[in-house]
Amino acid sequence: MHCSYFAAERCRSCTLIEQPYADQLVGKQRQVEAVLGRRPELDWLAPVASLEAGFRNKAKMVVGGTAQQPTLGILDAEGRGIDLQRCGLYPPGLTAAFPVLAEFIVQAALAPYDVPRRSGELKFLIVTESPDGELMLRFVLRSQESVTRIRKHLPDLMRALPNLQVVSVNLHPEHKATVEGQREIVLTEQETLRMRVNDFDMYLRPQSFFQTNTPVAAALYRQAREWVAERAPESVWDLYCGVGGFALHCAAPGRDVIGIETSAEAIASAELSARQAGLDRVAFQVGDATAFALGADVVPELVIVNPPRRGLGEDLCRWLESSSAVRQVVYSSCHAGSLARDLALMPSLRPRRARLLDMFPQTTHYEVLTLLERG
């Protein structure tokens, strides 16, 4: 894949972009197998490939420059904006939206946040595209100073982008290396973006997490569903469930499924999906995965886990290791190193099958799904 930004050394984020894509997949497979170590009992399925370009459903664009000439992309080492509106990772729907959003910044006189000087208001634009081409837009602001102007000019933006369905403001007053703050102000009547994945309508709220590569996420859920169906458990937990992707896909007649997630917004979205699908034996709760497991009176036969990069942590691993009623674990990991550390803490739950899913082409990152079975 050729990228003019990479060639000009304006953006070097895609560290593998000069390698043929087939070589990238081979390298990632070798890397994950090396990290997990030699395991003769582990059956590796063929990797799931991605589109090489245009695969990202979300753009987190740092806003730089000035209110008269904004840039959308990243910042250089001195904190100056580098415009990446034509980045090849984004699909045509997002690429077409970027110039319109840049014009809106000018129209609404939104001063980009100047990192070195700690001045200005607009820090990021976060834009998500659904499989149907609908958009969610979030303005990440330092304060509410610009909200009135955004509201005033929002009808013009909605006319210019008729596929724009959800717009919100995220307030991030602190000067720190994080993308967003805790408070969200929704500016549109519609609050959720529908994300069609396989058989389900899933719903994304402004602060909910969703996998960045929709087709590969769909393959991830299908693979988990296949493994769970083969084992036919009567009870399943989906820990770190997000908006409910694994729980929804692994539901079946006669099976009780519970999803646990700290984000109340994500749980609200998951509950909506379950209601619409008529899944009355799928339930979701807001809570910490480890605290829920350690405090539970009833233990399921199968547990699905999809933790952040840091992994499950020692407490949850020890609980899974000691809970003999848990016969299988389906572990979705975005970091092979933390997966290997967790596996070492659960020696009686042995990896039987695994599959690499290339959620992030052109980079060294990937997702790996592993089936663990006791004994």
Automatic annotation (TrEMBL):
Alphabetized UniProt keyword annotations: 4Fe-4S, Iron, Iron-sulfur, Metal-binding, Methyltransferase, rRNA processing, S-adenosyl-L-methionine, Transferase
GO MF terms held by the record: 4 iron, 4 sulfur cluster binding; metal ion binding; rRNA (uridine-C5-)-methyltransferase activity
UniProt cross-references to Gene3D superfamilies, sorted A to Z: 2.40.50.1070, Vaccinia Virus protein VP39
GO biological process: rRNA base methylation
SUPFAM superfamilies found in the cross-reference section: S-adenosyl-L-methionine-dependent methyltransferases (SSF53335)
Span of domain Methyltransferase: 235-293
Active site location: C334
InterPro entries according to UniProt: 23SrRNA_MeTrfase_RlmC, Methyltranfer_dom, MeTrfase_TrmA_AS, MeTrfase_TrmA_CS, SAM-dependent_MTases_sf, U5_MeTrfase_fam
Positions contributing to S-adenosyl-L-methionine binding: Q211, Y240, E261, N306
Pfam families recorded: Methyltransf_31
NCBIfam families membership: meth_trns_rumB, PRK03522.2-1
Similarity comment: family membership: Belongs to the class I-like SAM-binding methyltransferase superfamily. RNA M5U methyltransferase family.
Protein name as annotated: 23S rRNA (Uracil(747)-C(5))-methyltransferase RlmC
Species this chain originates from: Pengzhenrongella frigida
Lineage of the organism: Bacteria, Bacillati, Actinomycetota, Actinomycetes, Micrococcales
Gene encoding the protein: rlmC
